Amino acid sequence: MRRDVFQAIADPTRREILHLLARQSLNVNAVADNFDISRPAISRHVRILTECGLLVIRKEGRERYCQADLRKLKQVSDWTDRYREFWTKKLDDLEEFLEKEKKKK
To answer: For 18-26, which contacts have Cβ atoms below 8 Å and span 24 or more sequence positions?
Structure first.
């Protein structure tokens, strides 16, 4: 199954994992210690984030360390910017309309 950044951040646990790893690199067990779900579930979330390019796994001996790579989130930012521009224009138009109506009274 091909995954993308939008699927990765759709899950609140994955968003929290990204938030945690944005500050520091941690091994998978240390990541799991921050959640009330099973280690296999955390491993699955880590795998999905890695497949989407939001995490990089580096091995040191027997340990696997997770490091956030948030550059791919630019795709989300670019997508939301289009809607931000649209709604900003709509709200500016509404404000202008309401000001005109207010002056008529």
So the answer is: 18/49, 18/54, 18/55, 18/68, 18/70, 21/55, 21/66, 21/67, 21/68, 22/68, 22/70, 25/58, 25/65, 25/66, 25/67, 26/65, 26/66
Domain that holds residue 45: 5-104
For tokens 């696997």, what's the residue?
64
| Kind of pairing between the strands at 26-27 and 55-60 | unpaired
Cα 34 off chain centre by: 18
End-to-end C-alpha distance for the chain, whole angstroms = 60
In the predicted model, what is the mean pLDDT of residues 53-61? 93
Could you tell me which residue, 82 or 33, shows the higher pLDDT?
33
For the full predicted model, state whether its pTM sits above 0.85.
no
Q: What is the CATH number of the domain that holds 36?
A: 1.10.10.10
